[in-house]
Amino acid sequence: MSLTLLYHPLSSFCWKALIALYENGTPFTPNMVNLGDPAERAALLALSPIGRFPVLRDETRGETVPESSIVIEYLDRHYPGAVRLIPENPDLALQTRLRDRFLDLYVHLPMQKVVGDRLRPADSKDPHGVAEARAQLRTSYAILDQQLILNQQRAHGGWMMGEHFSLADCAAAPTMFYGNKVAPFGDDHRHLAAYLERLMARPSFARVLREAEPYFGMFPQET
């Protein structure tokens, strides 16, 4: 099989790439990486010196593709399916990429800050950084909730960019799922909560969640 994805089933950024692959039924070989295993870590570093996943390896084209957004764009360009994850219209494509960046930078990373702090030793906690991350999440939730309201008012559909499922929804699914665990939406963000329900019902994301379920016990709880 030409495509191999190096990933971990709990990694939120890996979920983003998996959703894109499952959305179009793109054939690939999943290669789960245990970073605690020196050989597996070395194999990942050989492909991606930064040592982060997901990483997509395309043997047919001789390409190694890191970073979830770039993996999705690569798939959309070289292995397109029925669902175009980046619109062909240049202006819509730009807006889709902008929404993807917003979700990664202002929801995904703050969420990971909160989760990562739970893994720190007691004497290395960063309560100030966590408070800042939670504040950023609340601000971002409000902006996204308002965008979903506007989509509804304009009859643009129920996805992040409106009518069509896209790169932005691939980015939103893991951030909304994990974000709601560390900083629940609450009554002020009912549209965001309803959007998460739609995402979880989408077959591509539902499959990701099923495959991750055996590992959810590894998710760090608040102490």
Would you kindly provide a brief summary of this structure?
The protein is an alpha+beta fold and about 220 residues long.
Distance between the termini: 44 Å
Mean pLDDT over the residues: 93
Indicate the overall shape. Answer: globular
Q: Are there runs of 5+ residues with pLDDT below 50, and where?
A: none
Radius of gyration: 17 Å
Widest sheet: strand order? 2-1-3-4
The profile of the biggest β sheet is: 4 strands, mixed
* Number of alpha- plus pi-helical segments: 8
> Roughly how much helix do the residues carry, as a percent range?
55-70%
Note the beta-strand portion.
5-15%
Helix and strand composition category: alpha+beta
Secondary-structure element series? EHEHEEHHHHHH
